[in-house]
Amino acid sequence: MIKKKCVAMLLAGGQGSRLGVLTGKIAKPAVPYGGKYRIIDFPLSNCTNSGIDTVGILTQYKPLELNDYVGSGKPWDLDRLNGGVHILPPYQGQKGGDWYKGTANAIYQNLEFIERYNPEYVLILSGDHIYKMDYSKMIEQHEQTGAACTISVLEVSLEEASRFGIMNTNEDGSIYEFEEKPKVPKSQLASMGIYVFTWEKLKKYLTEDDANPDSDNDFGKNVIPLMLNNGELMMVYRFNDYWKDVGTVDSLWEANLDLLNPRIDLNLSDKDWRIYSRTVALPPQYIADTAEVEHSLVTDGCEVAGKLDYSILFENVTVEQDATVEYSLVMPGAVIKKGAKVKYAIIAEDVVVEENATVGCDPTEIARDDFGITVIGSGIKVGRGAKVGAKEMITEDVKEEA
Amino acid sequence: MISSSVAGIVFANAHDETIAKLTQKRSIASVPFGGRYRLIDFCLSNLVNAGVSNIGIITKEKYRSLMDHLGSGMHWDLDRKSGGIRILPPFNVSRVRLYQNHVEALYGAMDFMTRCKEKYIVVYDARTVANIDIKAVVKQHINTNADITVVCRKGLKITNGDNTMALDVNKEGRIVLTGFPQKIAADDVRSMGVYVFNREKLIEIVKESYRTGGDTINDDIISANLDNLKIMAYEHKNYAEIMDCPKAYRRANFELLDANVRKDLFNNERPIYTKTRDDMPTRYGVDSCVKNSLIAEGCVIEGTVKNSVLFRGVKVEKGAVVENCILMQGVTVGENAVLDNVISDKNASVGAGMVAKGTEEKEFFIEKNQKI
């Protein structure tokens, strides 16, 4: 094997249970985003754009669609003679085998994979964030400071800080304490779940962590504190651009509509930092005479004859005449039939919203506490004239209403 | 399996002159079409969808843009260890000049034809826009024990009768007479420029025709052999257009605004592949107004667009009005500019407030990279 400077390991095995029906059949990194992407396109494109050509993807939960999607890695230019993309599921060895018990354990079980490339650094990524980041700059800083581990951080507001893992640092950016979701945060530097480790150190601490039967084998909970206690040099790497965790329905909805917000700087048409994705062969979109399309993103294969405002249509979506879609995401293959109304909703793949049905409602129409994004699970049929209210999460067909 | 017994030969440059404005710097095969395609995409996709994976592409000149488009062939799943795409650049058979006609071109591809092992060869003119079930054509070819099968269509709209052959077909489906009537009759059966040959027969005919100074496939390979070879017609029943003049090119682009045409050309069983560009989805601005238009990925539309075809990455700025236009990849229309009946080649830009109007009869043409 030819030696690599840096190998990336992408944690893609989580269920993403807070996304409810959206991850009923697929792993979180395979959830569609932004009209033509999947969440995993972001870390993969960032890798390839940062010059990292060896990526291990750790899968566990519902891997079929994700495996299919990643394939040979060609769309991200990660089909390489040396390196490239590798799907790494849990496996059996001579002494049996185990599911991945935690984030650290998933990497521990694949030390052999990393060893083959004998890298200097290992980049740990997760598959649930939307952001564009040049990892090579972070690795450069890691190299210069000689740290054992560098953790990428984002400055968040004090109110938000108690939702994150917070890094308390000295003036030079070295970390003296890590606090998971502190009630009274001492700093506003939130971990983004992106780590660069010096390979020898990572190997040492993962092995030590594995030998501890009381450990949850988690990076944030166990490995990082263990390294801090041992007096290793741990540095923060400050990141200032757009970054969003899409772990919940609300944040997924928001992160999508951020693409339509002129005040938010997330440019996906940047020729110097493309976000690649696996695309299907579809004709261009057709916007009919009866259509009114404003302030929206529309993808190949869509046919729009109805009204569209502040929404994102993924590929192959049909919006029939007199139907309206507002403040919503409509995922691949869904059909919104005549007279149907969709507001503040996420419509998953291949859903059919029948004629005159209503999905979701406007936050101004109901009490603040009752409001929430409505989600229709993939393949569901919402019957003619049926009404689905705010916050509902639909997992079974909705009957027609007279 | 019949598929692995079929190879393909594509003419990339034949009839370049028929849409001269768009072929000044490219072959007809790489002329942009329908928002995100090049003409050759239809041909390659049809072949690939029938399982054909060994395809020779005969080029002559101006083929840089075609090579750019094709790359390794991966977008058509044609990056193969065995077969895949083979570009057949001009092979100077006559020692004094480039090939001048179909027969010389095919003779130049003799190595390809003799080296491939497939029993049948589909010869395809890249200027035909259709979703043809090549599998069905080959099946008929085999079942009827034909030497040559010509894909044809009844009532094909043609504008330039000169090089679109009309066929008289008998009850058994055999072609008994050919001609080139300028007048177009609704029930005319015309050749679509797509043929299936028994490979060995093709080699034999091409050698013989080359020796006797043969010129076109239609005259010297089909018409000349009606009596001594079994030449059958295969009727393609759904949408087809042949880019035989600028008018046909314009018409065919606008025909894509018709839902039935899109249904005929694009279906899940036989998709049309093309080079992907990793663009963003198209973004419609706050005051955009779009009616009856076909719009590719990566466009940003803040003005008005009606009855038009927009290729990838076109920008229509605030207040601009685009009507009855075909705007190719990367065209920018500045604020408050007005375009009507314009065909613009790639990456042109129209300045703010500019007005360019053509008519249905004679469109206003903007050249590649031109600024107005």
Could you please describe the fold and organization of this structure?
The complex is a heterodimer of chains A (402) and B (372). Chain A is built from 9 helices and 33 strands. Chain A has 402 residues and is an alpha/beta fold. In chain A, the strands form 8 sheets. Chain A has a 7-stranded mixed beta sheet, with helices on both faces. Chain B is an alpha/beta fold and 372 residues long. A 7-stranded mixed beta sheet of chain B has the order 5-4-1-6-11-8-12, sandwiched between helices. A 5-stranded parallel beta sheet of chain B has the order 14-17-20-23-26, with no helix packed on it. In chain B, strands 15-18-21-24-27 form a 5-stranded parallel beta sheet, with no helix packed on it. In chain B, strand 4, helix 2 (64-70) and strand 5 (84-88) form a beta-alpha-beta unit. The model of chain B has no long low-confidence stretch (mean pLDDT 90). Classes of the chains: A alpha/beta (402), B alpha/beta (372). The A-B interface holds A 34-36, 74-75, 260, 268-269, 274-277, 279-289, 291-300, 303, 308, 312-313 and B 34-36, 45, 74, 256-257, 259, 262, 265-266, 271-274, 276, 278-298, 309-310. Strand 16 (285-287) of chain A pairs antiparallel with strand 16 of chain B, so a sheet runs across the interface.
Tell me the layout of helices and strands.
The complex is a heterodimer of chains A (402) and B (372).
Chain A: E1 6-11, E2 32-33, E3 37-38, H1 41-49, E4 54-58, H2 63-70, E5 84-88, E6 92-93, E7 96-97, H3 103-108, H4 111-117, E8 121-126, E9 129-131, H5 135-145, E10 149-155, H6 158-161, E11 165-169, E12 175-180, E13 189-198, H7 199-211, H8 219-229, E14 234-239, E15 243-245, H9 249-257, E16 285-287, E17 292-294, E18 296-298, E19 303-304, E20 307-309, E21 312-313, E22 318-319, E23 324-326, E24 329-330, E25 335-336, E26 341-343, E27 345-347, E28 352-353, E29 358-359, E30 374-376, E31 381-382, E32 387-388, E33 393-394
Parallel strand pairs in A: 1-4, 1-8, 4-5, 10-14, 16-19, 17-20, 18-21, 19-22, 20-23, 21-24, 22-25, 23-26, 24-27, 25-28, 26-29, 27-30, 28-31, 29-32, 30-33
Antiparallel strand pairs in A: 2-3, 6-7, 8-13, 9-15, 10-13, 11-12
Chain B: E1 6-11, E2 32-33, E3 37-38, H1 39-49, E4 54-58, H2 64-70, E5 84-88, H3 102-108, H4 110-115, E6 120-125, E7 128-130, H5 134-143, E8 148-154, E9 166-169, E10 175-179, E11 189-198, H6 199-211, H7 217-222, E12 231-235, E13 240-242, H8 246-255, H9 259-265, E14 282-284, E15 289-291, E16 293-295, E17 300-301, E18 304-306, E19 309-310, E20 315-316, E21 321-323, E22 326-327, E23 332-333, E24 338-340, E25 342-344, E26 349-350, E27 355-357, E28 364-366
Parallel strand pairs in B: 1-4, 1-6, 4-5, 8-12, 14-17, 15-18, 16-19, 17-20, 18-21, 19-22, 20-23, 21-24, 22-25, 23-26, 24-27, 25-28
Antiparallel strand pairs in B: 2-3, 6-11, 7-13, 8-11, 9-10
Helix pairs in contact in B: 3-6
